Amino acid sequence: MIRGAAARGPAAPRPLARALTAVIGVVAMGCGGPAADEPTPGAEGAPAVIDLFDGETLDGWRIHGTERWYVEDGEIVSESGPDAEYGYLATERTFGDFDLKVRFRQEADGNSGVFFRSSVDGTTVSGWQAEVAPPGLWTGGIYESYGRGWLVRPDSTRRDVMMGEWNEMRIRAVGDTVTTWLNGVEMVTLVDEKIGDAEGSIVLQIHDGGGIRVRWRDLLLTDLSGS
User: Fold this and answer.
1) CA distances from 186 to 32, 155, 216 (A)
2) Residue 184's domain is classified under what CATH number?
3) What integer is the mean pLDDT of 217-222?
4) Looking at the whole model, is its pTM more than 0.85?
């Protein structure tokens, strides 16, 4: 989730950002089948799906901070450590255009997030977060850390996260357009030139404050960059 205003700090050095070109997050409710633009695994000419987590180790990932990240029962477990600070688990590989699905279960607090096209220096993250939070706190919205803050939040009528149960987040970033879904329901669509210029890691977060425990599994990414 986001940093509090007092803890947010100055923006990380970046080229001068161009204006936010458009934000649209009002969509019709619905669930069930895949969205029309969802990649079809195995279809002729379709890009391959990359499993970011092998189910046994954190190979391909890098831990940032002192919070706890480990594998248990074929799942990544993230939980607050004794320092109760921010913590991150970042892919060593970077991505530009992609379509990511990830399942998560909030066992305690659930104050977390999935960053994309991001980088981490120590425990300072630069990039964009698809919010993962307790009910009522805009899961599926997009937040820019050390920058402009909230870029778009879901309408309050959208389906909310199911605390204590498995949820599926889908994030699709192609050029300057990002769309998120929660359990099959489109949450927000954002068009932003600054995001369109970026490439970076997929990063899971633990918020500071302590008492957080979230499980992650089925991190499947379709690389749409054509590289």
Assistant:
1) 11, 10, 20
2) 2.60.120.560
3) 98
4) no
Region of 146 please: left (phi>0), alpha (psi -120 to 50) or beta.
left
- Number of domains making up the chain: 1
- Can you read off the two tokens belonging to residue 131? 């919010």
- Annotate 128-191 with three-state secondary structure: EEEEECCCCCCCCCEEEECCCEEEECCCCCCCCCCCCCEEEEEEEEECCEEEEEECCEEEEEEE
Mean of pLDDT over the chain: 85
92 lies in which domain range?
19-28+47-223
CB 112, CB 78: distance < 8 Å: yes
Residue 112 has pLDDT above 60, yes or no: yes
Q: How far is CA 22 from the centre of its chain?
A: 20
Across the range 60-68, mean pLDDT stands at 96
What does the pLDDT look like over 149-201, one tens digit per residue? 999 999 988 889 999 999 999 999 999 999 999 999 999 999 999 999 999 99
Confidence of residue 44 (pLDDT cuts 50, 70, 90): low
